[in-house]
Design brief:
alpha+beta, Immunoglobulin-like, seven-stranded mixed β-sheet, six-stranded mixed β-sheet
Length: 240
C-alpha cells in the first residue's frame, strides 16, 4: 500500500462524515419549524375573545296585545356567554345562557324600552335598545254628557277619553249622521269638534266612532247631548 493511497482514503472518509452531519443538520430545520408553528397555533386557539355584537333587533316593534313577543340578542365571543335583559333600565331576567327573551302573552304594561347585556370572562357588551309598543283598543271611560252652548257663539265638544295604541281614527256623528267638516264645522288634530256660530239646528245628540287600524277594533262613544240657548242679555233686550 502506497502512502498516496492511504491519504486518499482518509480524505474520502472525512467527506462522507461531513455529508452525514450536513444531512442531519439540514433535516432538523423542518422539525424545528413544525414545533414552532405548532406552538403558535396552540397559543392562537387558546386566546379568549370578548363578547361582540352580531346585528340585533329592529329599533321599534309593535305587537298586538295578547300576542307573543320574542326578542333576540345575537352576539359572538368566547363561550360561555351569558345574557341579561332589562325593561326601562330594570332587570327582567337574571344572567342566563339563553339569548332569547320570550313572552307568550304580551300585556300593555310590557311596553317599553328593552335592552340586553352579554358577558363572558373577558368583558361585557350592551345591545342597542328596542322600543316595544303594545297595540290595543280600550273602551271609552266616560258616560253620557250634556253640554250647553250659547246661540251665535262657538261650541267645542270633546270626545270622551279613550285608551288606545296606536291613536285611533275618529269619526263624529250628529243624530246618527256622519259630520262632514265645512266652513262652520271643524275637527281639530286632537279630535275635538268645533262648531262656529251655533244655531238652534246644532242642538242634538253627538257621538264618535273610533277605529284602531292596527287591531281592527271599532268602538262607539257614549252620547254628548248639546243644547243651544239664547243669550240672557238678548232676551232682556227683546222684552224691553
Amino acid at each position: 500500500m502506497t502512502p498516496g493511497g492511504s491519504s486518499e482514503r482518509s480524505r474520502n472518509r472525512r467527506r462522507m462524515r461531513g455529508a452525514r452531519i450536513g444531512t442531519a443538520r439540514s433535516g432538523s430545520l423542518p422539525l424545528c419549524l413544525v414545533i414552532l408553528l405548532g406552538s403558535s397555533c396552540h397559543m392562537l386557539h387558546g386566546q379568549e375573545v370578548a363578547p361582540y355584537l352580531q346585528g340585533g333587533e329592529r329599533g321599534q316593534q309593535v305587537v298586538l296585545e295578547g300576542n307573543r313577543l320574542v326578542l333576540t340578542c345575537p352576539a359572538g365571543g368566547s363561550w360561555p356567554l351569558q345574557y341579561r335583559w332589562t325593561l326601562n333600565n330594570t332587570n327582567v331576567t337574571d344572567w342566563t345562557p339563553q339569548y332569547r327573551l320570550s313572552m307568550p302573552s304580551l300585556k300593555r304594561a310590557d311596553a317599553g324600552s328593552y335592552q340586553c347585556m352579554v358577558r363572558n370572562r373577558m368583558g361585557a357588551v350592551i345591545h342597542r335598545r328596542t322600543e316595544v309598543h303594545v297595540a290595543f283598543m280600550g273602551n271609552f271611560s266616560a258616560g253620557e254628557q250634556r253640554k250647553t252652548a250659547t246661540r251665535g257663539r262657538a261650541a267645542i265638544i270633546s270626545p270622551p277619553p279613550l285608551a288606545s295604541f296606536p291613536r285611533p281614527l275618529v269619526t263624529w256623528y250628529k243624530d246618527g249622521h256622519k259630520i262632514i267638516p265645512n266652513n262652520r264645522i271643524a275637527i281639530t288634530l286632537d279630535n275635538h269638534l268645533v262648531v262656529l256660530a251655533t244655531t238652534a239646528a246644532d242642538a242634538g245628540r253627538y257621538h264618535v266612532e273610533a277605529l284602531n287600524e292596527m287591531t281592527g277594533e271599532n268602538v262607539t262613544s257614549p252620547a254628548v247631548y248639546l243644547s243651544v240657548s239664547v243669550c240672557l242679555q238678548r232676551r232682556q233686550r227683546d222684552v224691553t
